[in-house]
Write a structure and sequence with these properties.
heterodimer; A: 486 residues; alpha+beta; D-amino Acid Aminotransferase, Chain A, domain 1; Cathepsin D, subunit A, domain 1; seven-stranded antiparallel beta sheet; six-stranded mixed beta barrel; 23 strands; 29% helix; elongated; B: 222 residues; mainly alpha; 79% helix; 0% strand; globular; disordered C terminus
Chain lengths: 486, 222
């Protein structure tokens, strides 16, 4: 049963073509995606960055008069209507004293080689249907230093699938030695799933060579061929919010109903759109270990009112999906800002250890601004600390102190009486409603994100939140900020 | 041979038995290509290549056909390897490719004639059949430039499998006679193709490709 349910969540090529690409991507919108010059034009109107064009070569005549001396030290040559990254040549340095450039592989390209390559482009060797094409000479993206450490030479890129103005799924592609510095999965690049709501990487997959019938991937934990291999899960992609916005904007601008947006992160300019894809591949499902179909169907009938709305929908619908996987891989658990936890009664009601009667479920607020967690008086009394609280409040402790120093002096001189009750571990000096106060600290048995632990909590006056979890208890957790109060 | 009145009428009105057999065979091979693509997920070099190969194989016989294909593809690969060292225009490259294929075929025929190699009477093969097979190199080279070696070999493999199935069907006397006697099957093939054309489920290859996602959930259940 489960297997068939899971199969239904996956988007196959047949359905992608029939239900998404054909009806949603009109010929005119496909034209924009298939033509890089047009893509740049359309996107620049929306204020979206694309690699800067140095030169366009449309004819052999123009090629003949190409002034090689005017070209910068590093640039990229691309066919305007190329497919699958074919015909793209990256030149990343000029050879000293010569008019020749070096490719990432170390190969040197002379002006003659470059001319030949551009001629091939013009003749349509790399374009769809071998039509005559235009060669683009453009800026080489200088990878963001943070992501650079995960990739072998080339530029890692981030692919986002967009539908109905909602970013549906995302992955990062990391060039490897085998992929020769390209971010092409079929050449051996690594694909890493990204949690839509947080921009944190999850699973990483790498295509195996052996497979004959079909693409076959293996799951990997860390990069493959770098000097110092790095763990791939739990990476926070920089500019995540901006990246999601760009993806939605690209969909709006190109009018592609089902789109793949490829974004690279430039060291200086931030997110740059490489390419729009009118027929994005399905490998992204493998990277995320999740099906596209149910996600698409979930957002199908939602009326998206604005860009922010689209992003919010994506985060709410698809965010939590990968929480468990982040936990599994990174060993870190995810807690929400508004998280449900359990508090155990000090004296168990039932003898059975796991009896639900022994605990109380409450919604807590996670606040990294606090150090020690807090619990309000009423709740603390209810779960078994009534005596301790009664004792503490019966003491003649001043209502407020002028400074922390005064409070500390008071504590020092009244140490024994203040912590006279066995349930009071110590006292804390806190700021409550703008005044400095002394409050007792108790130890509460809890269960947070399916993990049981003892938490020290400061007992406070009754406030909006029954419990606020502070920094002390949040070590080792990732906090998901997308799920706020609803 | 006993034919239905309608088939008899068709055969009396300008179509030879052989032509009719081949024409029906083409319709079947075309349907197999569509089945293979959308239910199984295996790509071939379009419909034309497997159809023309299947027909060529009926003239050469499967064994000879596959051997000639092997020679054509091998020399095509070799010429690609040699020519990739030299930068040149695409069509010139293809023309050289053809010249090299022709040369290797001539040499191959001579060797077979000299040493037999278990392939007697090779010289009796219809030239047009050989030429059709040579045309395969065009599809192959294009695919190799665009998608690389591995993909093109895979696509070539499935093209050959489909062509061989096509050859098998066309050369079975019983199947051919049955098809000729039931020409209504051609519109039936259209119906089948309409159904395949609307099929939006997962292809067999999709299931294999995404099996980790499917299995993953099962592990969770355990």
């Amino acid at each position: 049963m489960l297997r068939s349910k899971k199969i239904k969540e996956i988007l196959g090529l047949n359905r992608r073509n029939q239900e998404y690409i054909r009806p949603l991507n009109s010929p005119s919108s496909k034209k924009i995606a298939d033509n890089k010059i047009l893509t740049k034009k359309v996107l620049s109107k929306e204020g979206i960055n694309t690699p800067e064009v140095y030169k366009l070569i449309r004819t052999k005549k123009q090629l003949q008069f190409l002034d090689f001396e005017s070209l910068p030290n590093s640039f990229v040559i691309k066919p305007n209507q190329g497919t699958g990254g074919n015909g793209i040549v990256v030149l990343y340095g000029k050879k000293k004293g010569q008019t020749a450039w070096i490719r990432p592989s170390g190969e040197i390209m002379s002006t003659k080689d470059i001319t030949m390559h551009i001629e091939n482009i013009l003749e349509g060797r790399y374009s769809m249907g071998s039509r005559k094409d235009i060669a683009i000479i453009e800026e080489r993206v200088k990878t963001d230093p943070f992501l650079k450490q995960y990739s072998y030479k080339g530029v890692p890129d981030i692919r986002i699938i967009g539908y109905n103005q909602v970013p549906i799924m995302a992955m990062m592609r990391l060039p490897t030695k085998k992929s020769n510095g390209t971010a092409n999965l079929h050449s051996g690049a690594i694909c890493t799933g990204i949690d839509i709501s947080s921009g944190i990487t999850t699973y990483s997959m790498h295509m195996q060579d052996k497979s004959l019938i079909s693409d076959s991937y293996e799951m990997i934990d860390s990069t493959l061929d770098l000097k110092e291999n790095k763990k791939l899960a739990g990476i926070q992609i920089p500019y995540w919010e901006q990246i999601l916005e760009i993806a939605v904007k690209c969909q709006k601008a190109s009018k592609l109903g089902y789109i793949g947006v490829d974004i690279a992160l430039d060291a200086e300019k931030g997110p740059i759109v490489f390419e729009l894809n009118a027929r994005p591949g399905l490998g992204i499902q493998v990277a995320n270990q999740a099906g596209l179909r149910w996600r698409l169907e979930k957002v199908k009938d939602i009326e998206i009112k604005s860009m922010k709305h689209g992003i919010r929908v994506a985060k709410n619908l698809f965010g939590g999906e990968v929480e468990e996987s982040i936990e599994a891989i990174s060993g870190r658990k995810v807690v929400n800002i508004n998280e449900k936890i359990f508090l155990y009664y000090k004296t168990p009601v039932s003898k059975k250890k796991n009896d639900p009667q022994n605990r109380e479920a409450i919604r807590v607020f996670v606040d990294t601004g606090l150090i020690t967690s807090r619990i309000n008086k009423t709740l603390a009394s209810r779960i078994g600390f009534f005596e301790a609280i009664k004792y503490f409040y019966s003491l003649p402790i001043p209502d407020k102190f002028e400074s922390f120093k005064d409070a500390q002096e008071y504590i020092d001189s009244n140490q024994t009486t203040i912590i006279g009750h066995p349930d009071i571990l110590r006292v804390a000096k806190i700021v409550e409603e703008g005044t400095i106060k002394i409050r007792p600290v108790i130890c509460v048995h809890t269960k947070i994100a399916s993990e049981e632990k003892e938490i020290e909590m400061v007992v406070t006056e009754d406030t909006t939140y029954n419990v606020v979890i502070g920094r002390n208890e949040l070590k080792g957790y990732l906090i998901d900020t997308s799920k706020t109060f609803t | 041979m006993d034919y239905t009145p309608f088939t008899k009428w068709v055969l009396d009105n300008g179509l030879s038995e052989r032509t009719l057999e081949l024409l029906v065979g083409i319709a079947i091979v075309a349907t197999i290509v569509s089945l293979a693509r959308y239910l199984f997920g295996s790509k071939s070099f379009g419909i034309y290549a497997p159809v023309i190969l299947a027909v060529a194989f009926t003239y050469t016989g499967l064994r000879y056909g596959l051997v000639i294909t092997a020679v054509v593809i091998t020399s095509s690969l070799l010429s690609y390897l040699i020519l990739s060292k030299i930068r040149m225009h695409y069509i010139s490259r293809m023309a050289i490719n053809y010249c090299l294929i022709i040369m290797s075929l001539i040499i191959f025929f001579i060797i077979v004639h000299k040493y037999n190699l278990g392939l007697p009477n090779m010289s009796l093969i219809q030239p047009l059949a050989i030429i059709s097979i040579i045309g395969l190199s065009d599809f192959f080279a294009k695919q190799q430039i665009k998608k690389g070696f591995k993909t093109s070999i895979l696509v070539l493999g499935s093209t050959l499998v489909i062509a061989s199935i096509g050859w098998f069907i066309i050369t079975r006397e019983a199947i051919s006679t049955f098809m000729i006697n039931n020409l209504w099957l051609i519109p039936a093939l259209i119906v089948i193709n309409i159904l395949i054309g609307q099929f939006s489920g997962l292809r067999f290859k999709d299931i294999v490709r995404f099996r980790t996602i499917i299995q993953d959930e099962e592990n969770v259940k355990k």
